[in-house]
C-alpha cells in the first residue's frame, strides 16, 4: 500500500490533492499537513512513498522542507513533487538544489498530477532506487492515464468543490464537472459543445475566452484571478492541457469558491 504525504498551508488545496491522490492507484493511504514542522515530525517515525508539497508556505518553504526531509533516515530516495505558482527559474533551482524530484506549475492540471504521481511511485519502487541514497530520482514526463484511472479521476473531479471545465482551441466546452454544471443549473452533458458566452453570459464569457486565448498563445498557465460567479466570488485559474506529443489541445479552467482563508 502506497503512503503519500501532502503538505500545503491552504486547506482547499490539501482537500483537492488528497482526493486526487486516492485515484492514483488502489489502496493509497494519505497523510495531510498544513505545517512543514508538523510534517517533518511525523516523517521521523513513519514511512512514506511519495511527498507532494507546496513551495511557498509561511515559516518554512518547500525547498527547506525538502532539504530537511532528505536528511531523515530513508528520505534520500523518496520522490518529492513540488507544486509552485511561481514561473521563476530561481524557485525551481532552489527546490532542485534541495533535492526535489519533479515539479508542477500551479494551477495544476488534475490529470497531470495523477499521472506524474503514479510515475514517481513506480520509480521509487525500482530496486535500483535502493542504491541512490545520495541522488534522488530524476523527473519523469507524464504518460497517458489507463482507462480505469481516467474513469476514477472523473469521479474524483465530480466530487470536488471546485468548478472544473475544459474548452477546446475553438472555444467549445469539451468537459464540465458536476460542480461547474450545478453552478449553471445544468447537467455536465448538457454543457458539452457550448461556447463561453452561452454558458457564462456575454461579459464573463468573453473574459473567459480571452483568458483561454492567452493560455493557447503563451503555452503557460494564467495567474489566479478573482471573478464573480453565480453564487459568490471565485478564484479562477487557467492552464493548458497537452496531448502525449506536447501539443496544447484544450484549456482547463478551475474556479474555487473563496472561503475565509486569505488569498496568497
Largest sheet: 5 strands, parallel
Please identify which CATH superfamily of the largest domain we are dealing with: Response regulator
The computed structural class is alpha/beta
Strand order of the largest sheet: 2-1-3-4-5
Task: Give Rg in angstroms.
Answer: 19 Å
Instruction: Return residue spans where pLDDT drops below 50 for at least 5 consecutive residues.
Output: 127-145, 260-264
| CATH class wording of the largest domain | Alpha Beta
Strand content: 15-25%
Number of helices: 10
Task: Tell me the distance between the termini.
Answer: 34 Å
Named at the architecture level, the CATH assignment of the largest domain is 3-Layer(aba) Sandwich
The count of β-strands is 10
Order of helices and strands: EHEHEHEHEHHEEHHHHEEE
CATH topology of the largest domain: Rossmann fold
How many domains is the backbone divided into? 2
Shape: elongated
Please give the share of residues in helix: 25-40%
- Roughly what is the average pLDDT, rounded to an integer? 81
Organism: Roseicella aerolata
Pfam families: PAS_4, Response_reg
Domain PAS: 149-193
Keywords: Phosphoprotein
What do you see in this structure?
It comes from Roseicella aerolata. This is Response regulator. It holds the Pfam family PAS_4. InterPro entries: Bact_response_regulator (IPR050595), CheY-like_superfamily (IPR011006), PAS (IPR000014), PAS-like_dom_sf (IPR035965), PAS_4 (IPR013656), Sig_transdc_resp-reg_receiver (IPR001789). Keywords: Phosphoprotein. With 264 residues, the protein is an alpha/beta fold. The protein folds into 2 domains: 146 residues, Response regulator (Rossmann fold, 3-Layer(aba) Sandwich); 97 residues, PAS domain (Beta-Lactamase, 2-Layer Sandwich). Helices cover 37% and strands 24% of the residues. The protein is built from 10 helices and 10 strands. The strands form 2 sheets. A 5-stranded parallel sheet has the order 2-1-3-4-5, sandwiched between helices. Strands 7-6-10-9-8 form a 5-stranded antiparallel sheet. Strand 6 and strand 7 form a beta hairpin. The C terminus is likely disordered.
Amino acid at each position: 500500500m502506497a503512503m503519500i504525504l501532502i503538505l500545503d498551508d491552504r486547506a482547499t488545496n490539501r482537500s483537492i490533492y488528497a482526493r486526487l491522490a486516492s485515484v492514483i492507484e488502489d489502496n493509497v493511504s494519505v497523510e495531510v499537513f498544513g505545517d512543514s514542522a508538523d510534517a517533518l515530525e511525523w516523517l521521523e517515525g513513519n514511512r512514506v512513498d511519495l511527498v507532494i508539497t507546496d513551495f511557498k508556505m509561511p515559516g518554512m518553504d518547500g525547498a527547506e522542507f525538502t532539504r530537511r526531509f532528505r536528511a531523515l533516515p530513508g528520505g534520500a530516495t523518496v520522490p518529492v513533487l513540488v507544486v509552485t505558482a511561481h514561473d521563476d527559474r530561481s524557485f525551481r533551482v532552489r527546490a532542485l538544489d534541495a533535492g526535489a524530484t519533479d515539479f508542477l506549475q500551479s494551477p495544476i492540471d488534475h490529470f497531470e498530477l495523477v499521472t506524474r504521481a503514479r510515475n514517481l511511485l513506480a520509480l521509487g519502487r525500482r530496486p535500483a532506487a535502493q542504491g541512490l541514497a545520495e541522488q534522488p530520482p530524476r523527473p519523469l514526463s507524464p504518460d497517458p492515464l489507463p482507462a480505469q484511472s481516467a474513469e476514477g479521476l472523473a469521479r474524483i473531479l465530480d466530487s470536488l468543490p471546485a468548478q472544473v471545465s475544459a474548452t477546446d482551441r475553438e472555444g467549445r466546452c469539451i468537459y464540465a464537472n458536476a460542480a461547474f454544471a450545478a453552478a449553471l443549473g445544468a447537467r455536465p452533458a448538457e454543457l458539452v459543445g457550448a461556447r463561453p458566452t452561452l454558458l457564462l453570459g456575454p461579459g464573463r464569457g468573453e473574459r473567459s475566452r480571452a483568458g483561454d486565448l492567452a493560455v493557447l498563445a503563451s503555452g503557460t498557465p494564467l495567474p489566479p484571478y478573482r471573478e464573480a460567479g453565480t453564487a459568490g466570488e471565485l478564484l479562477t485559474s487557467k492552464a493548458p492541457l497537452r496531448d502525449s506529443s506536447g501539443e496544447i489541445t484544450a484549456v482547463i479552467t478551475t474556479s474555487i469558491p473563496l472561503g475565509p482563508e486569505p488569498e496568497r
